[in-house]
Amino acid sequence: MHRFFLNKLIMVLSTFAAVIGLGFLLWILTTLSIKGFESINWAIFTHDLVEKGLLNVIVGQLIMAGIATLIGVPMGMMAGIYLREYSFGSRFSDIIRNLSDVMMSAPSVIIGVFIYGIFVAPFGSFNGWAGALALSIMMIPIIVSTTDSMLSLVPQELREAGIALGASKAQVIKDIVLKSAKIGLITGVLLAFARVVGETAPLLFTSSNNDYFMLNLNDPFPSLTVSIYQLATFPDETSQGLAWAGSVILTLMVLFINLTTRYIFRQRKAK
Question: What is the mean pLDDT of residues 184-199?
Answer without folding.
Answer: 88
